[in-house]
Specification:
With about 110 residues, the chain is mostly helical. It has a single domain, classed as Up-down Bundle (Four Helix Bundle (Hemerythrin (Met), subunit A)), CATH 1.20.120. Helix 2 runs antiparallel to helix 3. The longest helix has 27 residues.
């Protein structure tokens, strides 16, 4: 049975389950492209570029109901906008872990 979160997303965007699955695939692809860019930006001390990647992730995750990923990306967007520090890479790794866990939960509820 679909989770309430997925049902709400389908209703909010007036899409069917197949479209949702397609959007999830796109999100996963984009996330896997954006996080290495963010990592490189952090390593290059480019706070603006790192923040921009978090902004993109935040928007996509929020649109598809990945609320925990959305909240963490929002937090990192603000942190990176202010400055990068010794925790910036660890925080990005935490976002990646959160995203993977949230996607696994969604995929499980789609079974």
């Amino acid at each position: 049975m679909l989770s309430q979160k997925i049902q709400d997303t389908l209703e909010n965007f007036d899409i069917d389950l197949d479209e949702y699955k397609e959007f999830l695939g796109d999100l996963e692809t984009n996330f896997n492209e954006l996080t290495p860019i963010a990592r490189a930006a952090i390593e290059d001390s480019d706070a603006s570029a790192a923040s921009d990647q978090m902004h993109s992730i935040k928007g996509s995750a929020g649109s598809l109901g990945l609320n925990i990923t959305y909240e963490k990306a929002q937090e990192l967007e603000q942190q990176y906008k202010n400055s990068l520090d010794e925790n910036s890479l660890a925080n990005l790794d935490e976002l990646i872990k959160i995203f993977k866990e949230e996607m696994a939960e969604i995929h499980e509820s789609l079974q």
